[in-house]
Amino acid sequence: MTVSEIKNLRIRQLLFLNVVLLFFLAAAYMLTRLIDFTISQMFLFIGIAALIQSIVGWTKRNSAKSIIPVMEQIAIYEKEKMGSEWEKQRKVSSQWSLFMSIMMFLNTYVQRDNGEMMKLDLPYLFFLAAGILVIINIGLIVHIRKVDGAQSKSDFKGFTLKQNLMAIVIGVLFGIIIFIFTIAYVRSLF
User: Which of 8, 22, 43, 160 could bridge to 107 as Cys pair (CB 3.0-4.6 Å)?
Assistant: First the structure.
């Protein structure tokens, strides 16, 4: 692939992922307005979705096939460029999805008797969506620069470990920011 083809592919990848994320956040907001469901049901739904993602990841771990052409082209390109580190990255991604699924099922169990209905406040959802978009885009841009800038497969030695450690640190920091923002936001309502 030429540099311009790769750049075009990466732009389409960023656009696709942002549109999909915004669509699902908007759909979640609309769903909470149309249908009453409990917080435990929300955790159950997220847990099932993460479990499906993990199972799909495990079953097609070494395959670059995708129903979305842009994502398939990216996967083929990255698999060729990264070599065995790409497969390791896919395996770890499936493990994280399984971990997330287990955490959501645990939250479902803990919240089972709560009965509290799920309500999403528009300003809060806007802040959450903006934060998620910023973090995902920064992470993706860092990933793109590393992959596209690498000269050989040896440049990826330890890439998955470093990437996951960075994701954990950023996730914890984002969690703290969300926690502080949530407390401040709830206090402002009273």
Answer: 43
Which of 132, 102, 108, 100 lies closest to 26, judged by CA? 132
Query: Phi and psi (nearest 5°) for 117?
Result: -80, 150
Residue that is written with structure tokens 């950023």 in the block: 170
Question: 79: which 2 tokens?
Answer: 């698999």
| Whole-number Å distance between alpha carbons of 72 and 104 | 29
- Rounded (10°) CA dihedral 156, 158, 164, 167: -60
CA-wise closest residue to 42 among 102, 92, 105: 105
The kind and range of the H/E element at 147 are: helix 122-149
- Amino acid 190: pLDDT: 74
Q: How far apart are CA 116 and CA 128, in angstroms?
A: 21
Q: In this predicted structure, what is the pLDDT of residue 26?
A: 86
Q: Which residues of 130-145 are buried (b: 16+ CB within 10 A; e: fewer)?
A: eeeeebeeeeeeeebe
Q: Average pLDDT of each block of 10 consecutive residues along the chain (190 residues)?
A: 89 94 87 84 91 92 86 91 90 93 93 76 83 90 90 87 90 90 82
Check residue 14 and give its pLDDT.
94
CB 97 within 8 A of CB 39: no
* Residue 10: predicted pLDDT: 93
